[in-house]
Amino acid sequence: MDDFHYRQGQLYAEDVNLDTLADELGTPLYVYSRHTFEQHYDRIAAAFAELDPIICYSIKSCGNVHICKLLAERGAGMDVVSGGEIHRAQLAGADMSKIVYAGVGKSDDEIRMGIEAGIGWFNIESEAEFENIDAIAKQLGKTTRGALRVNPDVADPRTHAKTTTGKKETKFGVDIERARKFFETYGKNEHCRLNAIHLHIGSPIYSPEPYVMAIRKALALIDELRGQGHEIEAIDIGGGYAADYEAGKSPAYDEYAAAIVPLLKGKGLKVILEPGRTIAGNAGLLLTEVQYRKQGGAKQFVIVDTGMHHLLRPAMYDAFHFIWPTRVSREHAPGPRSESMDLPALETVEIVGPICETGDVLAKARSIPPVKRGDRLAIFTAGAYGMAMASNYNAFPRPAEVLVEGDAYRVIRRRETYDDLVAAEMANVGAN
Length: 432
Ligand code: LLP
Fold this sequence. Notes:
Blueprint: E1 4-7, E2 10-13, E3 16-17, H1 18-25, E4 29-33, H2 34-47, E5 54-58, H3 65-72, E6 77-80, H4 83-91, E7 99-101, H5 108-117, E8 121-124, H6 127-140, E9 144-151, E10 174-175, H7 176-186, E11 192-198, H8 209-227, E12 234-236, H9 253-264, E13 270-273, H10 277-280, E14 284-296, E15 299-304, H11 313-317, E16 323-325, E17 347-352, E18 361-368, E19 376-379, E20 400-405, E21 408-413, H12 418-426
Parallel strand pairs: 4-20, 5-6, 5-13, 6-7, 7-8, 8-9, 9-10, 9-11, 11-12, 12-13, 15-17
Antiparallel strand pairs: 1-2, 2-3, 4-14, 14-15, 14-19, 16-19, 17-18, 20-21
Helix pairs in contact: 5-6, 7-8, 8-9
The protein binds ligand LLP.
Ligand LLP is lined by residues 58, 60-61, 79, 102, 163, 200, 203-204, 238-241, 274-278, 313, 317, 384-385.
């Protein structure tokens, strides 16, 4: 369970009253629980402990430097996808040898940055990219390591089409047939040593089976490659472990581990995991305030001060996020979350934001306790791919981020100002 809970009808993050917090810091506001982050990291580490894996937190899910720092301090490596994320990992004090870097479009500058930083592995997405990394390492007089990203042609049918990656026809990695050829051609290169296999089959993956299928295929490939004299040191099994958007329950790390650990034990492989959502998802929520109520045809609109610009997931993937007022009567203080939507005396509303698009909807036909102007709502499980995907669309400053630690809190990203919105433009004024 996460650390967001109701006490006598008032929502708390750990021991901090969220209305008091909103009074002090304003809304919209991303609120994270340090304890939830730490619990999730520790529990995934414990579940997979037998393999002594490198757990590379996927920065793209929630990349705030302070969050990365608290995970790095617990021993986490980082999964990055850009030079900007390498920069975040460096600022967080992460151990660079525990950085894995995937992404189909790494630029020369980003590759140089990764090599000079001494990252653990480049996750290799194509032949052209491998040749470029090898050549750049040679120019720099350095060596680096490559993990070939293989598409095992496996997917979870429940994963959204926009976030499934393990099928043959994606832009990511290469298929198994091409992987054999890849090692034949580049397996002996010296500046980028190809000595690992990387998988990432999509996000979220709700059950262990797709991992099991993918890992079996990868292990068969590794046996073959070893048989041909290639040294394979590591297998990176990617991320994708789910978060509970309905009830906020703790992710089922033990279930994944029970299926995955026996496959990888004793294989002489360093195991790497890249969890993002499962660590960050339930560790954060987005706090918003009701601006207006409005009727449109038969629909009741609740218009709030956040929307698709701050939490894109509902608009982009039709994603469900449980939403509930921060102050409720005793009868509406939720137990398991989405079940609360069956409680009596709720109303059905459309929860929408201020953006000039019809698609700016946070929840459609949603049951919530009645709310009025000035009331606050919490949008749960917004820690992953929330602020990370937020934009300044329509020139709205992005929310502040606050990290709750017991009965204390720290602003870990201040609220943006109107000047922030135009700062990069002002710097160029007169530059022609
Ligand atoms: N490793 C690689 C190579 C990835 O591409 C990703 C996510 C992860 C790890 C972490 O996946 P996670 O454990 O967080 O599921 N914006 C979408 C999700 C996009 C995921 C992109 N890659 C969403 O909001 O659902």
